[in-house]
């Protein structure tokens, strides 16, 4: 391919993009960036374009990295294609991290086949998977919901004696959570703690949510305790999940205890917390306690929001007493408590 410089006959958008290239970028890098910005697959072959650039400009690894960094900043659609074509180039001096970055990038886009193709190419070129590469694969398979491949890759790390870190453990735990196997995920959580490795907040939260959804109060309480043991201060969202576990299990009084505990430590109950509490009372058919709860909330300046209102309205509709809601509330309120249920 003959190298043809970009002329003035380009679109305003292309001119704008070219004008915003970093001032410190070398001329050889800007030359390639201009070509990529104005690239048209109908008129140019990207592989031949890069070959011509290498032959004429004689780039070094730093130049390749500068171009890839700018493509990533621009979120350019040709980023991965350019990165793949760079790998076999002698001037790029590819190492295993370059392959891992592409695999991880494809994983984030859920492009499993493309990631596996790069992995195969990497192995054919004599690179051996290390801890970082395998962790990226576990994370990718976990995110895609492919438990079998996530397990196989995680076990490969163990067999190779590679160190297991927060990310690798967290990824496989999330794979079990997504597969509806929270107990397996919790077992790995205990394994982590034995190694004095602690998962991130989101992993604990996902496990807690899994137990909360099915009303497994023991599991939810164990994870909630583990969160505090890991040095993570529970927030309102985590408390709401624990409350919900008790609510789903029909243990409204224990849900109320969690609600009062979160207030006791200075947290402001969210509308979600109020909604969860109302749902717990509905499941236990404790209308009287629910109304007293609402009055207590109003007295303390905690307003009922959209989600809590929806729970309350749904409950009264099932009871067939929507029209009497305000009268019932007035009967319970001996002070100036006014609450209007939306129609």
UniProtKB/TrEMBL annotation:
Q: Where are the PPR repeats?
A: 95-129, 130-164, 165-199, 200-234, 235-269
What are the entry keywords? Repeat
**Boundaries of each PROP1-like PPR domain copy?**
108-220
**InterPro entries given in the database record:** PPR_rpt, PROP1-like_PPR_dom, TPR-like_helical_dom_sf
- For whether the record's keyword set contains Repeat, the answer is yes
Q: Which domain of life is it from?
A: Eukaryota
Q: Does the keyword Repeat apply?
A: yes
Q: Which NCBIfam families match?
A: PPR
Protein name, as recorded: PROP1-like PPR domain-containing protein
């Amino acid at each position: 391919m003959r190298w043809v410089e970009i002329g003035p006959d380009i679109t305003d958008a292309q001119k704008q993009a070219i004008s915003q290239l970093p001032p410190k970028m070398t001329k050889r890098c800007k030359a390639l960036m201009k070509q990529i910005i104005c690239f048209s697959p109908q008129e140019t072959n990207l592989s031949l374009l890069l070959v011509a650039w290498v032959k004429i400009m004689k780039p070094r690894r730093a130049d390749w990295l500068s171009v890839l960094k700018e493509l990533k900043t621009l979120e350019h659609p040709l980023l991965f294609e350019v990165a793949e074509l760079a790998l076999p180039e002698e001037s790029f001096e590819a190492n295993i991290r370059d392959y891992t970055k592409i695999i991880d990038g494809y994983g984030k886009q859920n492009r499993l086949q493309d990631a596996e193709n790069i992995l195969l190419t990497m192995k054919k070129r004599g690179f051996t998977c290390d801890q970082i590469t395998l962790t990226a694969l576990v994370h990718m398979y976990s995110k895609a919901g492919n438990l079998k491949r996530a397990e196989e890759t995680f076990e490969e790390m163990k067999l190779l004696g590679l160190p297991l870190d927060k990310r690798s453990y967290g990824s496989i735990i999330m794979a079990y959570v997504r597969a509806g196997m929270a107990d397996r995920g919790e077992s790995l959580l205990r394994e982590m703690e034995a190694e004095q490795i602690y998962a991130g907040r989101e992993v604990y939260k996902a496990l807690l949510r899994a137990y909360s959804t099915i009303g497994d109060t023991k599991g939810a309480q164990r994870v909630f305790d583990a969160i505090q043991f890991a040095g993570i201060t529970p927030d309102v969202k985590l408390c709401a999940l624990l409350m919900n576990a008790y609510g789903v299990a029909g243990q409204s009084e224990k849900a109320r205890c969690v609600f009062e505990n979160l207030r006791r430590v200075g947290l402001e109950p969210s509308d979600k917390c109020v909604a969860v509490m109302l749902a717990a009372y509905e499941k236990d058919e404790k209308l009287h306690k629910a109304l007293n709860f609402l009055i207590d909330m109003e007295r303390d300046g905690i307003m009922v929001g959209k989600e809590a209102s929806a729970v309350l309205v749904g409950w009264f509709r099932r009871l067939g007493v929507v029209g009497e809601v305000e009268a019932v509330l007035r009967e319970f309120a001996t002070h100036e408590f006014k609450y209007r249920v939306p129609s």
